[in-house]
Each structure stands twice: as structure tokens, then as C-alpha cells.
Amino acid sequence: MTPSLRKVARTTISISGIVLLWALISHSGLVNRDFLPAPDDVWAAAVELWGEGIMMQDLRVSLARAAVGFVMGSTLGVGMGLLTARSRIVSTLLTPFLTLLRPIPAIALVPLAIVWFGIGEGSKYFVITYTVFLAVWLNAHHGASEVAPTYIRASRSLGASPAREFFEVVLPAAAPYIVAGLRMGAALAFLSVCPMSS
Fold first, then answer.
1. Which pLDDT band holds residue 167 (cuts at 50, 70, 90)?
2. Which residue, 72, 166, 185, 187, has fewest beta-carbon neighbours within 10 Å?
């Protein structure tokens, strides 16, 4: 069996085991099925919602919110991360403030977002953007801050302009961190949709 097939097999076994345990607990009567419905109950409800068209409609709305929040948050996060990493003035002004914001969970900002933007789409976009922004900013900042000094010295000794140094040295070196931040931000965008899904 190839490594990829082994990975698929392990994932399938793991998920199947979790679903089986879930079904056993739900059908055992140890818990109220109103709080922990059985897998077959969930499947029946999903089929019903799909047939009525509700699931696809809600899915489209949620995906649109996650996509808009992700684009705004990741764009701001990458830009701000590169700025705070490479500009001492910007770093001094903003890095302490952004570091203080990091421990604040998105759900804690829901009431504030509703006060600022109302109960419409604006508050939902704000919460998702905030969550994505901080994750992407941290990774972009770390990546651009950790560029090897030898690369910088080499580019400057060869007469590279600041713009060329940024685009041909700093940005490629920070790219793996930025991509990791974007992957994390994409996951957080979907997680942030939940408290703002109404």
C-alpha cells in the first residue's frame, strides 16, 4: 500500500471510529438526544434541508461571508505584517497594540460589532476580517522579520535598491510563512462564520 493510500485509510478509520462512538453514545440513552442527536438523525435532517433547498441557500451565504472576510483580512494582514516587520516606526506604533488584540476571541467582539455596524452583513464581515487579519499578520510579520541578515547584506553589497531588496529577497523569504498564515486564516474564516451565522 502506498503512503498516500495508507494516509487515506488511517483517516477513514479514524472518522469511522468517531462516528461509531458518537452513534453508540447517542443510542445508549446516557445523554439527551436533543443535545446529542445520533448520526442517522443528523443525516435525515440534512437530507430534508437539502431537499427543501435551505441547506444550499445557507451554504452559499456562509461561503460568501467567509470569502469576503478572508480576502479583506488576509490582504490587510499581509500588508500590515510586512510593514511592521520591515519598518521600525510602524512596528513601534502598531506591534504592541496588535499583540494585545491577539488573545481577544472573535466571539467576544460580536456585541461590539453589532453596536458599531448593526445586525447586517457589516458586523459579520468585521468579525471574520478581524479573526483572519490577526492570524495572517502574525505569520507575515514573523516571516519578514526572520529574513537571514546575510541575504540582506548580500543584496545591499550588490547594489540592490530598497524596492528590489523587498521584492526579490524579503518577500520570497517570507512567502512560506505568509502561505501558512493564509491557510490558517482560511480555516478561521469558516470558524468565525458560526457565531455570526444568524
1. confident
2. 187
CA separation for the pair 93, 174 (Å, rounded): 22
Q: Measured at the alpha carbon of residue 104, what is the angle toward residues 170 and 135, in degrees to the nearest 5?
A: 25
Instruction: Quote the DSSP letter at residue 195.
Output: G
Number of domains within the chain: 2
Burial 145-179 (b: 16+ CB within 10 A, else e): bebeeeeeeebeeeebeeeebbeebbbebbeebbe
Q: What is the pLDDT of residue 27?
A: 82
What single string gives the DSSP state of each residue in 38-49? Answer: -HHHHHHHHHHH
At residue 49, what are phi and psi to the nearest 5 degrees?
-65, -35
The residue count for the chain: 198
* Angle, vertex CA 92, rays to CA 88 and CA 98, nearest 5: 120
Do residues 38 and 62 share a domain?
no
Based on the fold, state whether residues 137 and 121 are members of the same structural domain: yes
Beta strand residue intervals within 27-114, DSSP E: none
Alpha carbons 157 and 107: distance in angstroms, whole number: 49
Are 23 and 77 part of one and the same domain? Answer: no
Residue 198: pLDDT over 70:
no
Q: Judge if 80 and 32 occupy the same domain.
A: no
Same-domain status, 42 and 78? no
Start-to-end C-alpha separation, the chain: 46
pLDDT value at 164 more than 70: yes
